[in-house]
Amino acid sequence: MTSTLLDEKQIDFSLFGGAETLQPEKYQKITDFPRRTVLINPISEAEHYGKPPQDPSDFLWLMTEEPHRTRRMAIMKAHPEVTKLMGYEPLTKYIVLGVVALQILTAYLLRRTSPFSAVFIITAYIVGGTANHNLFLAIHEITHNLAFRGIISNKLLAMFANLPIGIPYAVTFKGYHLEHHKRMGEDGIDTDLPTRLEMLCLRNVLGKAFFCTFQILFYALRPGIVRSQRPTPWHFMNIATQLLFDYIFFRLFGPRVLIYLVLSSFFAGSLHPCAGHFIAEHYLWDGLEQETYSYYGPLNVLAYNVGYHNEHHDFPSVPWTRLPALKALAPEFYDVIPSHPSWPMVIFNFIFDDNVGLYSRAKRLGKPSKIVVEEDAESDKAE
């Protein structure tokens, strides 16, 4: 009774449709919610912050177009010289060669070490997880034909970068990833989006911790369930090349070398500092309807600057080495939108913050279409 009288003095119940009691957390001030993102240009804070958290019962459904095409056109109008940043990056192939060699050498050195030993596990996490995550993002870069001028050279390099990952996926990834760019947020088409089943089953701290720990498996299995691809000769070549490499490596040095490579891939997509980018890129934060977030911190050095994610989606034809130059060219577009200050903290906040979860994604109704692995350079470059 006392609580009800106190409520009546503090709250205008005419605003709540006949409710007689309200839980304190339901009407706490918007400013009471911790802010997880930052702004380089604080002048625009009032435009972004001050909104309540997203409704956790469903995804955020939008009727608007994805934002990157509009901003790309605006930047090209304001800075036509941006086209000079586009084109392939010769450095990429040398980094890929070095990281592949590093992983093969490390696996060879651990060929007589027990997979249950601290040395094996720590090496797989620190060296292997970081190296294979770098190769994930090398394949991402190569998917946009940004390592060579030609398509075939890029496909072959992607399959080579795939070798230490242990499981063939480079060619399959390309088809799904190009659709992620062209039809971002479209339900049933953009396989980067969690399914409704994932959202309903993984709602609490334990569920979100499970998702972050095994997110590499979600990203590997979800596409085949949501939207299957039509196999091409490149798919079969990727599978055959990977299986042949695995077989030869196994026959020469035993099973532990393959255990090291696969464990490295697992760590690369699990609770690893670099793996924070999977969640940082497109989950919704701070009550905002912003669909893509960048990160400008030091871990970009290990990750082909994938943290420059707004910049990448706006201009997929700009290679990783020139993304910082793109941001510097158009600060009036990029410094005024929120970004993440830390990838590891993104993982921590995602797990423990009640105001974010697998529901924190923007979705659009998608129109059915057949998935096709792009073969012409123009479509890869444009989108």
From TrEMBL:
Spans traversing the lipid bilayer: 94-110, 116-139, 205-221, 257-280
Which reaction is catalysed here? an N-acylsphinganine + 2 Fe(II)-[cytochrome b5] + O2 + 2 H(+) = an N-acylsphing-4-enine + 2 Fe(III)-[cytochrome b5] + 2 H2O
**Localization terms from the record:** Membrane
Q: Which UniProt keywords apply?
A: Lipid metabolism, Membrane, Oxidoreductase, Sphingolipid metabolism, Transmembrane, Transmembrane helix
Any one Pfam family here would be: FA_desaturase
Q: Which pathway does this polypeptide act in?
A: Lipid metabolism; sphingolipid metabolism
- Supply the CDD domains for this chain: Delta4-sphingolipid-FADS-like (cd03508)
Q: Which GO terms describe its biological process?
A: ceramide biosynthetic process
Q: Which InterPro entries has this protein been placed in?
A: DES1/DES2 (IPR011388), FA_desaturase_dom (IPR005804), Sphingolipid_d4-desaturase_N (IPR013866)
- What domain of life is recorded for the organism? Eukaryota
Q: What is this protein called?
A: Sphingolipid delta(4)-desaturase
Q: Taxonomic lineage per UniProt?
A: Eukaryota, Fungi, Dikarya, Basidiomycota, Agaricomycotina
